[in-house]
Every structure is written in structure tokens, then in C-alpha cells.
Write a structure and sequence with these properties.
The chain has 596 residues and is α/β, with parallel strands linked by helices. Helix content is 46%, strand content 13%. The strands form 2 sheets. An 8-stranded mixed β-sheet has the order 1-8-7-3-4-5-6-2. Strands 15-14-13-12-11-10-9-16 form an 8-stranded parallel β-sheet. The structure holds phosphoenolpyruvate (PEP) and magnesium ion. Residues 319, 321, 361, 456, 477-480, 527-528 line the site of phosphoenolpyruvate.
């Protein structure tokens, strides 16, 4: 339970006190609306003992509630909209499995029979015991799965108490203004989020969760501002409080003063104005002032992100993080057909533009649900291509699925975390084997599919001839390249201040990779966060980069920067930057680039 915190209040008759909470930003943007609290049903549970002769009736009451929830989940599953994020179906499956498990379907019945607790109390007792067991688990991701069990229990409790949580109608407010609602909850199940999809819910705030929690994953795919891990939010915020979610900063302001509200409305409007202005560039080719054409690609996590990529005018997908199809499924690896459908969906949605599908980059901060994170340094452990080569059947299945999708449009295969020549050779041999297996079954695919390498380990950037002679293209993963070059864990906030893209060593590695790729006549892209940072656009252009891949939301701002850039002026300044090993000189010179 989060520590009790007192809610600051003005005296009666005064406006509600404003307060600010900080959490983990998981989905960007600003939302301003009224709080709708989803109180955990558990808070209202009655505790009483049932008489001996009532025990079987109480058992039957719980069994009926379990059956009703089963039916409810089935209905949810059947009514999944066609465009629902794929993981939602999987989440409902997981909840159905939990519901059928004896730990939920039988153990509470025994508690009623042996201890004579009422059904709600029996269920909660069992959940408390299970929660305590989960708290002992070392694996952080598995520990988070406790939330799924609690969400299932809450559904059963709601049925038992006959208090189905009613969603308020978003039917307008004062002066015809429609105050849209922000969900505030201890936790939100993905299945519940699905119900919120068509209503006027514009943001989510939860007490628990992390970057990898289901709520975060779904909020991102729905493109709704969300902050999680905001301990105490659901107890401090009250129904109908005005809230501002700043999904970029991970901040929620409750009952903001009129001045603050005005400032955020201004920010929202300014952001909307900028977006609208940038929209005009959607069809403009990204050409520098002196005539060099630049390719702008999109980073996506799921095929559902493709419409946003098309909307932003992307030339294709430069990075499809395929591992998102594998996460949050309790280790159930998606079948070849299931994967094929998803890859094909992305390929079809991009209407002939190339789709670069990165093979499973699992591990470290993106563990498979039940993978045992026992390694002391998981970022240096059996992750990404290392994992795939150790699990050839999983890898081959994915490669076949990707190759099958290549019959429907231009597909490129991108291999993450390569460092050794034998890893490249083994990966290419696996691609060849997957092709041979498809050929044997007369299944169509593009035999000329390009295979590229992510350059995200310093060893790779220092051994480029090994890569360019074997690979069709390179893509620089600056997020990991910085992590491994500077020995900074990219998710550890205690060393976040040392994570510096402008460190001379990082810049040298990026520049060397671009130069080596071009000398060998192969494409080089940057697909890490640096590609979407407008403050670095000119520096990368000056280094010779001609392919940028980023989140669709960043694409038009980067394009605008490119349209205003003159390579003839940028190049000499960039050469000066590359000759320097002095951080201050580099930082100043990069600022100068913006003014050119
Ligand atoms: C990177 O490392 O820069 C990258 C693009 O991959 P990811 O962020 O998914 O590790
Ligand atoms: Mg990476």
C-alpha cells in the first residue's frame, strides 16, 4: 500500500487546494479534464461469518460470480473491435486463465467451507495470500503480474457485491463545454481500458505500474497521455477534481489555479498550432536548402502505429520493434501465423513503403514475461540476437513470418545487438534456412529481402568492415550505443545525468559508422532517439546521415529543420566538432549549428 499522504485543503467554502504529484511518464502529451476515480472494489468489502447451514449457499454464490465473470470476459473478447491493440486479446486470455486457475476458482471455496467467511472475504483472503507470495518473487516483471490477479479478483468482487462499476456518461458540462475525463485508479486492467476507448477519456493516472506495465503499453498504443507509478494518486485525488496530466514530464497537477490552468491550456493550444502548421509539410519532400534529399522513417511498436506514420508522411518504417508482439503474454510466444498477420498488417498499411522489421530484441529492460532475469547484468546478458541464436526455433519462426510478409510489400530484416562475425553469419544462415523451409512448402516471399545490422555496441562500430561486407544496410541504435560506450544503464535514473549523446566518443562512433557504410555503398540510418531530436538534426546531417528513423510524432519537426538546413554551411562546422575532444567546445559548436 502506498504511504498515507494528507491532501492539502483550503478551509470550507474555499476552492480546492492545488497539489502536484510526480510519477513515471509513459505516454506523451498534455490532458486537461475532470478526475474519474475507479475505486478498488476491495475497499468496500464486508466481512462476516456465515452460519453452518448457509455455507453451501455462500459457496454457490461465489461460483455463480466466477461464472458470470467468465462470461463477461468471453463477451469482451468477442466484442474486441477489429482495430483493438493486439495485446488486449492476450490480456483478456490471461485474465480468463487466472480465473480458471484453482488458486482463484477453488481455494476461496475451501476458505468458505473451513473458516465460514462470506464469499467476498474468502476471495480477498486468498488474494492477500497470493499477493504476499508474489511480493517474494525477485523478478520485477513477474512481481508486476500480481496486478493481473488483483484485477481479476476485483471483477469477481464487483459481481458479488452487485455494484458493477458504472462509467459516467461524458455528456457535457457547464456552458456547453465538455469536460473530458481522466481516469485515476490504483491500477487499470487493459480490458477495462478497452471499454474506455470509445468514450471521452483523455488520460490515465495510476498509483502503480512501470514502463512495462500493461497500462503503460496500452496507453502508448492508444496515444493518450498517461503517468503511472504515481503512488497515492488514487487516494489524494477526488472525484471530479480538475486535473492536468503532463505526460512529457510525468507530472499531474490537481485543482490547478486559474493561472496554471491557463498556462497549460496555452501550452496545449500552442502545441496544437505547431502541429497544425507542421501538417502542411506532410507531403513536402525532406530536401535541404541546397538540394539533398533525406529519407524520414518511422519507429513503430505495433502495426497499429502505421496510420500515424502514414499521417506524418513517413517514407517507410525504419524500426518495427517486434518484441512488443511478444511481451505481456505470459511467455506465450506468438505463432508463425499470428506474427505473419501482424507483419503483413504493417506492410499493407504502409502501402508499398519499406517496412524494416527488427527481429526479437528481448531482454534487459524488455524481458519476456516469464524469462528469468537472474543475470547480474541483464543488459550485457543473453538478450536480442544472442537470445535468438540460443533459441533457434523461436528465431526461425519469426524469420519465416517476416519473410511471408515480404510477399505483400517491401520488407527489410534488421538484426539487433550484433558484435561478432559469427553472429552475423549464423543470423544470415538462419535467414537462408527460413527461406528454404518456405520454398519447400511453396510459400511466397521476396527472395531479395535486405538484411541489415543494428550498430549499437561499440565493438560493432569499431569493426565495421566485418559488417559492411556481409550486410545490406546498417541502422545505428544510439540508445544502446550510448549505454554501452559510456557504461551507463539507460534506465537507471541515478546515472541519467551521465547519459550524453554529445560525448566525443559517441560522436566518433556514429560518424565512423556513417562514413564506413557510405564508402561501402550501403544505406545507413539512425533509429535511436537522437534521430528524433531536432537539436541534433543538423549535426547528424553534417556527419553525412541521410536516413533518420523516429517516432511518428517527431517526424514533421525534424523535416522542418531539414528544410531550413544548408549542408554547405553545416559540413565545415561539423568537421570542426568532430576534431574536438572538449565537451564544452562540442556543446557550443552544436548550438552554433542551430543558428546557421
Ligand atoms: C537503440 O538502441 O537505439 C534502439 C533503437 O533500439 P531500442 O531502443 O529498442 O533498444
Ligand atoms: Mg537497442
Amino acid at each position: 500500500m502506498p504511504a498515507e499522504r494528507s491532501r492539502p485543503r483550503f478551509p470550507a467554502g474555499q476552492p480546492m487546494a492545488s497539489f502536484t504529484l510526480h510519477g513515471i511518464p509513459v505516454s506523451r502529451g498534455i490532458a486537461i479534464g475532470r478526475a474519474h476515480l475507479l475505486a478498488p472494489a476491495a475497499l468496500d468489502v464486508k466481512h462476516y461469518l456465515v452460519a453452518e447451514e448457509q455455507v453451501e449457499a455462500e459457496v454457490a454464490r461465489l461460483q455463480q460470480a466466477l461464472a458470470a465473470v467468465h462470461k463477461e470476459l468471453q463477451t469482451l473478447w468477442n466484442e474486441l473491435p477489429k482495430d483493438a491493440p493486439t495485446e488486449l486479446g492476450a490480456f483478456i486470455d490471461v485474465h480468463a486463465l487466472i480465473l480458471s486457475d484453482p488458486m482463484i476458482s477453488e481455494a476461496p471455496l475451501d476458505i468458505i467451507r473451513t473458516r465460514h467467511y462470506n464469499a467476498e472475504w474468502a476471495l480477498l483472503t486468498q488474494i492477500d495470500e497470493l499477493s504476499a507470495q508474489f511480493d517474494e518473487i525477485e523478478d520485477a516483471y513477474l512481481r508486476e503480474r500480481k496486478a493481473d490477479i488483483q484485477q481479476v479478483a476485483e471483477r469477481v468482487l464487483k459481481v458479488l457485491m452487485g455494484t458493477e462499476q458504472m462509467l459516467p456518461k461524458a455528456d457535457g458540462g457547464e456552458d456547453g463545454f465538455q469536460p473530458q475525463m481522466i481516469i485515476v485508479a490504483h491500477d487499470i486492467s487493459p480490458a477495462d481500458m478497452l471499454q474506455f476507448r470509445d468514450r471521452s477519456f483523455i488520460g490515465f493516472v495510476t498509483d502503480v505500474g512501470g514502463q512495462n506495465s500493461h497500462t503503460a503499453i496500452v496507453a502508448r498504443s492508444l496515444d493518450i497521455p498517461a503517468v503511472v507509478g504515481m503512488s497515492g494518486a488514487s487516494t489524494l485525488v477526488e472525484q471530479d477534481d480538475w486535473l492536468i496530466i503532463d505526460g512529457d514530464a510525468g507530472v499531474v497537477i490537481a485543482n490547478p489555479s486559474p493561472l496554471v490552468l491557463e498556462q497549460y491550456r496555452e501550452r496545449q493550444l500552442a502545441a496544437a498550432r505547431v502541429r497544425k502548421k507542421l501538417q502542411k509539410l506532410k507531403k513536402t519532400p525532406a530536401i535541404t536548402k541546397d538540394g539533398t534529399e533525406i529519407t524520414l522513417l518511422a519507429n513503430i511498436e505495433l502495426p497499429d502505429d502505421c496510420p500515424a506514420a502514414m499521417e506524418a508522411g513517413a517514407n517507410g518504417v525504419g524500426l518495427f520493434r517486434s518484441e512488443f508482439l511478444f511481451m505481456g503474454r505470459n511467455s506465450k510466444i506468438p505463432s508463425e501465423d499470428e506474427q505473419f498477420e501482424q507483419y503483413k498488417k504493417a506492410v499493407v498499411a504502409m502501402k508499398g513503403r519499406p517496412v524494416t522489421i527488427r527481429t526479437l530484441d528481448i531482454g534487459a529492460d524488455k524481458p519476456l514475461d516469464q524469462s528469468e532475469q537472474t543475470a547480474l547484468n541483464p543488459a550485457l546478458g543473453l538478450r536480442a540476437i544472442r537470445y535468438c541464436l540460443a533459441e533457434p526455433q523461436i528465431f526461425l519462426t519469426q524469420l519465416r513470418a517476416i519473410l511471408r510478409a515480404s510477399a505483400f510489400g517491401k520488407v527489410r530484416i534488421l538484426i539487433p545487438m550484433l558484435a561478432h562475425a559469427f553472429e552475423i553469419d549464423q543470423s544470415l544462415a538462419m535467414v537462408a534456412q527460413a527461406k528454404a523451409e518456405l520454398r519447400e512448402k511453396n510459400i511466397k516471399f521476396d527472395d531479395d529481402v535486405d538484411v541489415g545490422a543494428m550498430i549499437e555496441i561499440p565493438a560493432a562500430a569499431l569493426a565495421l568492415p566485418m559488417f559492411v561486407k556481409r550486410m545490406d544496410f546498417l541502422s545505428i541504435g544510439t540508445n544502446d550505443l550510448i549505454q554501452y560506450t559510456l557504461a551507463i544503464d539507460r534506465v537507471d535514473y541515478e546515472v541519467a545525468h551521465l547519459y550524453n549523446p554529445l560525448h566525443p566518443a559517441v560522436l566518433q562512433l556514429i560518424s565512423m559508422t556513417i562514413a564506413a557504410g557510405h564508402k561501402a555503398g550501403i544505406d545507413v540510418a539512425v533509429c535511436g532517439e537522437m534521430a528524433g531530436d531536432v537539436k541534433l538534426t543538423r549535426l547528424l546531417l553534417g556527419m553525412g546521415l541521410r536516413e533518420f528513423s523516429m517516432h511518428p510524432a517527431q517526424l514533421l519537426s525534424v523535416k522542418q529543420e531539414i528544410l531550413n538546413s544548408d549542408l554547405a554551411r553545416i559540413m565545415p562546422q561539423t568537421r570542426k566538432i568532430m576534431r574536438s575532444m572538449e565537451p564544452n567546445v562540442i556543446a557550443d559548436a552544436v548550438e552554433q549549428l542551430q543558428l546557421m
